[in-house]
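Before any further analysis, we paired sequence with C-alpha cells, yielding the entry below:
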Amino acid sequence: MLSRSAIGWSLPAALAVAGCDRQTAAPVQANLASPDEVAAAAAPAIKPGAVDRGHAGEAAPSVVFEAPDGKSVTLARFKGKPLLVNLWATWCAPCVAELPTLDAAAAAAGDRLTVLAVSQDMETAKVAPFLKARRLVHLKAYRDPGLGLSVAYAANLPTTIFYDAKGRELWRVAGEMDWTSAAAKTLLAEG
C-alpha cells in the first residue's frame, strides 16, 4: 500500500507523463490574421492619385535632408509661404513622368509658392544631372539619401504633401498627378 506522501508524489508525475503523450494543436495567437485580413490591411486606404486630407493640420516632420548646396535643411526653413513637397526618385517611373508637370507648376507659381522635389535616391550624385538632362530648371536637387522623409510620411513614391505658410499640412497625394491640370491648380490655390 502506498503512503499518502507517495500518492502525493506519484499522482502528479503520472498525470504529467500521461499529458506528454497527448497530441494537441498549438494554441492560436490572439493577433493572428487571415490572409484576407492581411491583404485588406496592406491595401491603401486612399486610392492612388486621390487627395488625402487625413493629416490636415499636422506640422511638417523635423527630418534633416540635403539642400542643393549639400548643407543640411529641414522643412521648417520654408515656413512663410505655401510649400509643396514632392518625394521622388530617378528609378521611379511615375515620379519621372510627373516631374515635367511639377516643374511647370513651380514656374507658374513663381514666388507665391515653394516647390521642393526631394529625391529619395541613395546615390545623390546622379540627382542634379538627372534634373539638368531633362531641363527641369525650376526643380532644385534636394536629396534625402537616408529616406527620412519617406519614413516620416510612411510614403510610397511619388508622394506630394502641401503645407500652408505656417507649416501645417493641408493635403497629400500618393501617386502620380498632372500638376498643371485644373484639379491640381484648384488644390494649389488652397495655400
Observations:
- The longest strand covers residues 83-88.
